[in-house]
Write a structure and sequence with these properties.
By secondary structure, the chain is an all-alpha fold. The protein is built from four helices and no strands. Helix 1 runs antiparallel to helix 2. It is rod-shaped, with a radius of gyration of 30 Å. It starts with 10 loop residues before the first helix and ends with a helix.
Amino acid sequence: MYLTEPDLADWHDMVERVLLALSLPGDHAPELIASYRRLWAPRPGVSDEVSDPTGGAAQASAAHAQRLLRSAALAWLDSLPQLDPWPLRTDRRRRGRRAAEADVPTESDAAVSRDAAG
C-alpha cells in the first residue's frame, strides 16, 4: 500500500509519503516510518569499502554521499513528532438548501394572502 510500504530508498519520495501519512487520519504513519527506517538502515554484511580495484575517487565519493544520505534520512525519521492517530469523521454535512422557517411569513406569502382576500 502506498502509505505503509516504501518501494525504494529515495529522499523525496520518503518525505512526500511520510508527510502525507502524518496529515491523514488513521494509523498509516508509524508503519510507514518503521518501514523507511528498515529500508535506510545499514545492512549487515554489506561493506562500505570501495569495490573499484583502481581506487576510483568517484566511487569512493559516491559511497560517502550514500552514507551521508542514509544518516540524514534516519535522523529525519527519528526527529518526527509522535502523533496520535485521529479518527475519520463519520458525521456528514447536510446537503442542499436549508429548510425555510415555517413560522416566519415571507413577502411572497403576504402578497398571496392579500390577493386571496381581495
